[in-house]
Write a structure and sequence with these properties.
Elements: E1 3-13, E2 15-24, E3 29-35, H1 38-52, H2 60-70, H3 80-99, H4 104-107, E4 115-121, H5 130-142, E5 147-151, E6 156-161, E7 164-169, H6 179-196, E8 201-205, H7 212-221, E9 229-231, H8 239-247, E10 253-255, H9 261-270, E11 276-277, H10 281-284, H11 287-298, E12 303-304, H12 312-324, E13 331-333, H13 340-343, E14 352-353, E15 356-358, H14 371-375
Parallel strand pairs: 4-5, 4-13, 5-8, 8-9, 9-10, 10-11, 11-12
Antiparallel strand pairs: 1-2, 2-3, 4-15, 6-7, 14-15
Helix pairs in contact: 1-3, 2-3, 5-6, 7-8, 9-11, 11-12
The structure holds magnesium ion.
The site of magnesium ion has 5 residues, from loops.
Amino acid sequence: MKITAIKTAATRGHGMHLWVKVETDAGVTGLGECVHGGMQAIAIIEFLAPKLVGRDPFAIDAIFEEMRRSHVFDGGAGGALITALTGIELALWDLKGKALNTPVYELMGGKFRDKIWVYADCEIDPGMDFDQIKQVVDEVLERGFTALKVDIDIGAYSTRRGNQTFTVVKDRFNYHAGQIEHDRMVELVDMVTRAAGKGVAVAVDIHTRLDTPSAIRVAQDLAPYHLLWIEEPVPPENIDAMREVKRHSKNPICAGENLYLRHGLRELIEKQAVDIIMPDLPKCGGLSEGRKSANMAELYYMGFAPHNVSSPIGTLASAHVCATAPNFVVLEFHWLHRDYWTTIIKEKTDIIKDGYIELSDRPGIGVELDEEVARQYQWPGTKWFAD
Ligand SMILES: [Mg+2]
């Protein structure tokens, strides 16, 4: 079997969802998804495609590594080049599974579990009161989720003190949390965990927006809440700073959504600067890299909880890796208010039921993109699976 063409299309969603279709002379095709690669990723795939025509599509790791190494001067360590290769990588796994009539998880060594626990990323505004927060949380719980994540980094919000309303605006560049901001972060966690109740896992994301002393103070004051994790309390560039925060936190620290490849995660893992790694598989290098990263983290008894903003295609692709990683904790779902979550696939069903993805024995990734529906959300100025 030989690759005959690689084509792309792009859809609006959580940013751009780039579809990558690999075609072969045997008539078998594979479809992958990558995210956060931007228009650059499309141009990179167009550039790489002629090099891959005529190649054996089953040599997934070799193709990925050859392309990465031969373009190491063009961004082979991270960024759009890796994301573009990721889209191709996912498509190759889908193709290989279909050609062999086997689900991807079987090709990756088999399952440790049949059901993949999923958490819902939900949006709260830092100015919300308890009733408003409860409404957001209830909506998620009513959909069957037993785990959720909220953002507690504060940009601007209004608060009432007595009968006066203050608008607090956090300095965008100074990552020090003042007393009001600190108190509000803790207050938000208190309200969300009370709204969720016992038995619901709550993770909180700080989006790297604190300096080290502020992050340590927040981590210490969140100790009583038994959170699923505190995500990216400080920026990811300084691993030692992350480790300092971890040393002071009773709650697990989770980071890594903006790192690429195993290489990007290595120092975070080796220095044990976090408790859980969270690579975004349809962005950071694909399924093989995800599996290998999970295995690296496992050596340090760290959890693996992939970040995920993808459609059902990329989400299910990630779920295959989650099934094959012993240290998998939970997978993200980020399409709460996008109703084409179910219509964008031909199956017309929610792949998440009662907060879990149950893996089927369908070949490849296991769901098909409904191109007609996806095209209704086509990214302006992009081609639709054309040569
Ligand atoms: Mg995050």
